[in-house]
Amino acid sequence: CAVVTAANGQEALDRAAAERPDLILLDMNMPVMNGQEVLRRLRADPELKEIPVIMLTARAAPEDVAAASACGIADYVTKPFDFAELMEKVQAALR
User: DSSP alpha helices (H): ranges in the chain?
Assistant: First the structure.
């Protein structure tokens, strides 16, 4: 697989539009635009709304999980994470 990275939320949104990835791993805590806003904008864009998103973040509060889930995520993984578990969730999201 090819990995494309972004330094902040706005760049993540721009890269998603340009690259059209098969999957996005998205952190809640990012500069410029947080992950919740990136997710909201992805879901509002007809060209990007179907891309599966896995939130990969240190924010584990139930309200954070609920807010991301309400926007339509494939899964939610908290840091520190188990790599094998993350890979299983990635594979499931790509099916």
Answer: 9-19, 35-44, 62-70, 83-94
- Cα separation, 27 vs 9, in Å, equals 9
Residue pLDDT, tens place only, 74-87: 999 999 999 999 99
Name the pTM for this structure. Answer: 0.92
| DSSP state letter for 47 | T
Residues paired with residue 56 on neighbouring β-strands, in sequence order: 77
Q: Three-state SS for 65?
A: helix
pLDDT the model gives residue 33:
93
Q: Which residues pair with 54 in a beta bridge?
A: 25, 75
Q: 91 exposed, middle or buried (CB, 10 Å; 0-12, 13-18, 19+)?
A: exposed
Please check whether residue 48 is in contact with residue 15, taking contact to mean a CB–CB distance below 8 angstroms: no
Cβ 76 vs Cβ 95: under 8 Å = no
